[in-house]
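Dear Dr. L.,

I hope this message finds you well. Following up on our conversation about the binding site, I have prepared a predicted three-dimensional model of the protein together with flavin-adenine dinucleotide. For your records, I am including the exact sequence and ligand specification that went into the calculation, followed by the C-alpha cells. Please feel free to forward this to your student if that is useful.
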Amino acid sequence: MDNSFEIPISRRDIMKMTGMTAAGVIAAETTGEPRIVSAAANNRENGTIKYAGREIPVLYSVDVCVAGGGPSGTAAAVMAARNGARTVLIERSVALGGLAVLGCVYPFMDTLAPDSDTPYVAEVKERLRQHGIEPFDGVTQQTWHNPEILALVYDEMCAEVGVEILYQTVLVDTVLAGHTITACIVQTIAGLAAIRARIFIDGTGDAFLARAAGAPYEQGYEKTGNNQPLSFRFEMGGIDVERLYRHVAVELQEDWCRSKPPYFEIAEAMHRKQRYKLEELMARGVESGEITQEEAEYMQAYTIIGKNGVMSMNCPEIPVKFSATDPVSYSKAVMYGRKMMHHIAGCLIRRLPGFEKAFISREAAMLGARESWRIRGRYYLTESDYHNQSRFPDAVCRTAWFIDAHGEKVSEKLPAGGFYEIPYGSLVTEKIENLIVAGRCISASFILQASMRIQPTCMSIGEAAGIAAAWGLSHKIAANEIKWYAIPVGKRSYVSKMR
Ligand SMILES: Cc1cc2nc3c(=O)[nH]c(=O)nc-3n(C[C@H](O)[C@H](O)[C@H](O)COP(=O)(O)OP(=O)(O)OC[C@H]3O[C@@H](n4cnc5c(N)ncnc54)[C@H](O)[C@@H]3O)c2cc1C
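The resulting structure of the complex is given below.
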C-alpha cells in the first residue's frame, strides 16, 4: 500500500483526530452539531483530501471508524457509540453479520467456557428472542439464530446508538501521519471517498485495515504455509425435517445431535476418529460417481429457527490447495466450491430421506474463510496459552472452543470447565497508535486462532474494542497504550479472574 501522498489537512486537524486536544469524544457529542443526513451535506462540512493525485470528498470526520460489519466489527461499532463516540461502520455488503449472515455460518458455537457471555453477547441473544427466535434448544449451549433476523437486530442496535453505517462500501486504503492513521479511503456507491477518524477498528476478518496501514501480520500455518480450508456454505429448503429426524436419529440411531426438531443437526466427517452413520450414505454417493471423495469428506447441516424446512449447510469444504489469501486462487475456489455444492445437494436429494423435495435455496454471499491474515500485535497468543489456560490482567474475554484446525486435522480439547483468556495486547500493535483489531484476525498463532475464531468470542473481542476506543478517546490515551484493567470495572465488559 502506498501511503506516501500528501493530505492537505492542518496540524490542528491532525491533533484533533489523534485526540491531542482537550476536546474529548464526549465533548464532541455535546456540541449540539446537527445530525448529518446526506453525503452532500457531509462533504460540505468535511471538505476534501488529496489521494493518489486527486481530490476526494471526506464523507465523515468522526471519533471511531470501524471497517467490517461482522460479529466483531458490529459489536465494536455499537459499543463505541454507546460509550459516546461518534462512529462510522463500513461494510462492503448490504447486511451486517459478516460470516454469520453473508457466509451462511450458523449457529453461534458454544465457547465451552463457563460464564463466557459478555453483556453484548447476552443482549444479542435476548434481542433474537424478542424477535421470535428462541436461540436455545434446552440441551446444548449453541445459539440457533436466524440470519435475516440477526441482520435486522444489528441494524436496530446500530440505529439506536447512532452508528452511521456505510453499506456497499469497501475499505481500500489508509492514510497515515507517522504512526497514526488519519483517514481511510473507501469505495462507495458514488466512488472514492475518505473517512477521517481518531481511532480505527479493524473488523474485516482479514486484517485488511491493519495491513493497509503497514501493521505486521502473518498468514496460514507456519508448518505448511496453508490457510485453513475455505467453505462455500449454502442453505437448502423444502426439507421434511421430521422425516429426516426419524431416519437419522431413530432408524440409523445416530446420537450425534442431542437436541430434537426444530433444533436438529446432521453431520459426517470422514477424517475424524468419530464414526458418523451418514458416512455410509456419502460413501455410496462416491461409489456411484455422484460425488467425489473430497466432497464426501465433510457434510453438516443445521435446521434454521424461523425458516421451516430450511437447513444451513456447513459444506462444501474446498481443498486447501485453494488459498484464502491469494485473490486468483480464491476466485477459482468460488467456482470449484459451487460445483461441489451442487454435487453434494444432488446426492442428498437422491439418497437422504427427508431431502426428496429439497433444493438449494440460498448460497453464501462470501466464501467462508476460517483463517486468512492475522496481525502480529503486542501480545501473540499461542497454543501454549490454550494448554496453560492463560489468564491476563488485561483480559477482554474468555473462551475454550476446541482447537479446530480443519485441513491440518489438528483437533484438541481442554478439560471440562477449563478456559483461557484473550488479552487486550493481542488487539493492538506496537506500530500503529490508533488501531484496534477485533475478531478472527487478532494477534494469534494459526493453531490458537483455530480456537478463538468462533462468533461469540469474536463478538466479545469487538465489544471490548469499542469500549476501549471510546475510553481511550475520552481519556486521551493512544489505542495501543490503553490498559484495559484501568477502565472502571462497571464500564468493562469483562474482568479477569486471575488464578
Ligand atoms: C465454514 C465456516 C464455518 C464456521 N462455523 C462456525 C460455527 O458454526 N459457529 C461459530 O460460532 N463460528 C463459526 N465459524 C467462525 C466464525 O464465523 C468467524 O470466525 C467469525 O464470523 C469471524 O468474525 P469477524 O467479525 O472477525 O469476521 P467476519 O465474520 O469475516 O466479518 C468480516 C466483515 O467485514 C467485511 N469486510 C471485509 N473486508 C472489508 C473491506 N475491505 N471493506 C468493507 N468491509 C469489509 C465483510 O463483508 C464482513 O461483513 C465458521 C467459519 C467458517 C468459515
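In brief: Residues 327-351 form the longest helix (25 residues).

With kind regards,
A. P.
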